[in-house]
Amino acid sequence: MLNIEILKFGSNYELPRIEHLRPFKCVLISELETTDNQKLEVCEWLLNAGCLYLMAWGKECSLWHDHMDEVHITAFNYQDIPGEHLVMTTWHPNESIRDVLRFAKHAATHGCTTLENLLILDLKNCSELSKSARTQKYKSLCVSL
Q1: CA nearest 87: which of 44, 34, 123?
Q2: pLDDT tens digits, residue range 1-36?
Q3: Separation CA 25–CA 4 (nearest Å)
Q4: Which of 1, 65, 73, 129 could form a disulfide with 134 if both were Cys (CB 3.0 to 4.6 A apart)?
Q5: What does the alpha-carbon distance between residue 113 and residue 86 come to, in Å, rounded to a whole number?
């Protein structure tokens, strides 16, 4: 059974400890303007915490994908990466969030390990929905898929 955890960040964020999810897959939902340094910081945080599959959706999703790849290959000094440490990355610019969550739940797998934890990293503006309403929305979507 897939364990789902949702974290919501606004423009002023502090990266919490999430190592308890290791290994995990992550749907990164981005609708905030972020700098390259912020993207790199978040990607490094995800990698160090044990993210083995990143699915980026929303604003600049292809850049999030590229930054995760950059952090990943840099961590291995541009050498061969052992299969158990390989991070898969995808970006989904033309799909609904429902489709991305369905993909995360049913199709995002890793060749060397089972990913039983899904982190939904919500980088949206706080004004659209309250945290509890948005959390319930994503959990409901995931359960119904």
Answers
A1: 44
A2: 899 999 987 767 778 999 999 999 999 999 888 899
A3: 10
A4: 129
A5: 10
**Cis bond before residue 93 (omega within 30° of 0):** no
Q: Distance (Å, rounded) from C-alpha 98 to C-alpha 70?
A: 27
Q: Which residues contact 85 (CB under 8 A, 6 or more apart)?
A: 52, 76
C-alpha torsion 27→71→35→46, nearest 10: 40
Domains and CATH numbers, the chain: 3-144 (3.90.190)
Element (H, E) at 110: none
| SS3 category, 78 | coil
Looking only at Cα atoms, what is the longest distance across the chain?
Answer: 44
* pTM, full prediction: 0.87
Q: Which residues contact 89 (CB under 8 A, 6 or more apart)?
A: 53, 54, 55, 56, 65, 68, 69, 72
